[in-house]
Amino acid sequence: MFRLKKIYSVVLLFFACSFFGVAQQDGNEEEPKQINIVYGANFTKNEAEYPGASIFSKDTRQVQFEHQGADLWCDVAIYYQLENRLEAIGNVILKQGDSIKMTSKKINYLGDVKLAKAWGNVVLTNSDMTLRTDTLRLDREKQEAFYQDNGTVVDSANTLTSKIGKYFMELKKYQFLDSVHVQNPEYTLDSEQLDYYTTSKNAYMYGPSTINGETYKIYCERGFYDTKVETGYGIKNTRIDYNNRIIEGDSVYFNKVQEFASATNNITVTDTINKGIIRAHYAEVFKAKDSVFATKRAVSISVQERDSLYVHGDTLMVTGKPEDRVLRAFRNAKFYKTDLSGKCDSIHSEEKTGITQLIKNPIIWNGANQMTGDSIHLKSNLETEKLDSLKVLKNAFIISLDSVSMTGYNQAKGINLFGKFIDNELKLIDLVQNTEVVYYMYNDDDELIGIDKTVCSKIRITMVDNDIEDLTFYTDPDGDIFPEKDLPENSRILKGFVWRGDERILTKEDIFDEDDNNLKLVVINGIDNPIDIDAEEQQRSQNESDPINNIPAQDKATDPKKSVKPKKVK
Predict the structure, then answer these.
(1) CA-based nearest residue to 392, from 410, 379, 404, 403
(2) Staple 287 to which of 43, 70, 209, 259, CB 3.0 to 4.6 Å?
(3) Alpha carbon of 473 to those of 270, 394, 461: distances in Å?
(4) For 26, what's the count of Cα atoms within 13 Å in the CB-facing half-sphere?
(5) For residue 347, how many other CB atoms are within 10 A of its CB?
(6) What are phi and psi of 423, to 5 degrees?
């Protein structure tokens, strides 16, 4: 071994001749540029082990090389000049400008294609982040770095780990694959694939992904998340567990600071405490107010023993703490449960009192019995959660089609009506004040006995299987049973009679009208293509090195009006 200083000028002259000889071969095509020695220190050769290579080793300084804007330092360098490649060993440092620095135990560098492969405690850093892995490939031509043997990325906000990762330097974007994990003091994120921008801290998730925060849990199979402020959305198989509610839908948005979540298309919001479910095509959840707003074919489902209650309105609102919840259905409100259904302008139901009010033009059907009045209240038993009682206030009217003749109508009316349920079945009805009855009476052979027409102060109706079994008149009843031929048709109809049998709600699907059933859902974008494609294109369009953009670097630097501001990624 001998000192490089004795032959340094010869080596440089040789390198210079080689470089200019190559450059002069073709003045039009750019040939690969030679790796240059900056400081060689000690020089030797070992043809047996490294044929054709020049070996350089450090003295008081490390060996240093330069290649097209990148500098490399190491303890020992094995340089193959003809192949324009370099093996750097020991305390290797590779710097590209002022932004990229990579350290490792060993680097193989191919000058013709500007490709470096690093081994051993590899650390890649820039102003935004630090990447650690065991093996890393750095493509300086494409400005990309790649690992496939586990890596860890640390920036100012998060620590990210994955088995496979790719770093796009110009976009400052990572593409993580396989067992991706993001650790943040406020939450954790796990995903099958994650694209992450180190500048914005935005994450784009592909494949099954779960985010666990202090007060929420998000699952989706495609989505976006702003890791700085814990805001994002999922657009495929999305679910958020949030404040005793589970929100599911085609597209679900979440904002931690605003304590807000919203969902679009095929939504289900489940109340895990009160066993309530809301389905719709648009919904909003406000955590601070403990409330849900839903519209577009919205329906509330109260799960009860063997029979659920379905409530629909153009708009549904559920507000209040679990023990004090209030359900409101606005405009074209309807409800359905087995043997009991109804409609009105709006519905107001309180968990605390168990009272459901049907407001403005209410009508209910108990089996085949139509009931109307100025207002209707249903009360549930707070312990059993079964229906307890019924009130029809002012102008109470009951009508049912005579099931034998199928032509006449049984009718009873009064000022107010009070009903009693037993095991969710209406058993007793009391009509009070100014009561009247028209009732078709039959014997056991279904032969018409006559038509009972009576006026009194109170009538009690006993029901069996939602049909009238017995009538009891109180306080000076005045009436008679008339043969059919002796009671004219117009005398068989009580004043205020309006039959609305064609409006009867027979199934849970009947609570929806034509507009609800023909609703066109909005198109959720990003399902079939990368959801951050706009972000990539926006950043690419600002890249001065891309000849398509034709951005003069000097003009952009000196004239702020020519700077392109990135648009907000939705």
Answers:
(1) 379
(2) 259
(3) 47, 20, 9
(4) 5
(5) 26
(6) 50, 50
